[in-house]
Fold this sequence. Notes:
By secondary structure, the chain is α/β, with parallel strands linked by helices. The chain folds into three domains: about 5-130, no CATH class; about 155-225; about 245-368, no CATH class. The protein is built from 13 helices and seven strands. The protein has helices spanning about 5-35, 50-55, 60-75, 75-85, 90-95, 105-115, 115-130, 135-140, 160-190, 200-210, 215-230, 250-255, 275-280, and strands at about 145-150, 155-160, 245-250, 265, 290-295, 350, 365. A five-stranded mixed β-sheet has the order 4-3-5-7-6. A hairpin with a 5-residue loop joins β1 and β2 (about 155-160). The longest helix has about 30 residues, at about 5-35. The protein starts with 5 loop residues before the first helix and ends with a strand. The relative contact order is 0.05.
Amino acid sequence: xxxxxxxxxxxxxxxxxxxxxxxxxxxxxxxxxxxxxxxxxxxxxxxxxxxxxxxxxxxxxxxxxxxxxxxxxxxxxxxxxxxxxxxxxxxxxxxxxxxxxxxxxxxxxxxxxxxxxxxxxxxxxxxxxxxxxxxxxxxxxxxxxxxxxxxxxxxxxxxxxxxxxxxxxxxxxxxxxxxxxxxxxxxxxxxxxxxxxxxxxxxxxxxxxxxxxxxxxxxxxxxxxxxxxxxxxxxxxxxxxxxxxxxxxxxxxxxxxxxxxxxxxxxxxxxxxxxxxxxxxxxxxxxxxxxxxxxxxxxxxxxxxxxxxxxxxxxxxxxxxxxxxxxxxxxxxxxxxxxxxxxxxxxxxxxxxxxxxxxxxxxxxxxx
Length: 368
């Protein structure tokens, strides 16, 4: 069999795309009629998209999109006819059905026939932005999701309305730009100091740092700074206690990186002992987290509970460390010694609201 020429291959590819579009249009008409007549209803079936995903082996999101387009085409005869003739691709129809109405159908059809699929999608996005947002849709689409990834990093996904989003981005960029200017000023002071090292490596690193003034690292730091500042604002009588970041760490690990033990965020990933030590060093300026240090009589931490919990501390004053009372023999919580109202989680735990040093041979939780 002789090899087909490239023009013949191009014609067959194009005609195949036309046939695929026509077949998809016919298939969507079947879906629309099936949905209209309620053929999907049955035990355990929640919707037509649910039935389509089950019977046709597609993902729920793809099935919902097919049902949406099928329903929209029933009220757009011009688009449906052009789709059935193969003049419009499935990508163009999927985009146009998001904005098309009987009054604008003809103009959108003429534009989509001459434009590419990418141009059509950009037009639809611009069209939707120009229309006033529906308050009900905005309220439904607001979301805040977060999770810890495999590298122990926090991933946050937010969706907010335009006003709040613009205010949020402006605050982040403002803090990031402020840090950039401070870094530049510090670099100029170092450069003006005759005693400071000014080798070629130092100058090159400074130029690279100035060129990366809007990096992801600075923006992440700005978001954390915003959250930390807002944590203490607008406190009123009757408000719940401030939430705390709780860190669990074995005393041996805190003293030696190579020791056996654990260091982790409560409900979060594991931490390196150096990270915990940095957090302990910052504790005088940050009072929104606590550290639960586990130790035992032998110092190995083996007798401590595997994952203790520490209640938030709402005390506003810092008391001097007081030696803990002897370990109680009965079950129940042990009252804190500083009088702030904190409670420990187990009979072998005592809570000090200060930068205390453990003087006991059982577990101690530090809160500030």
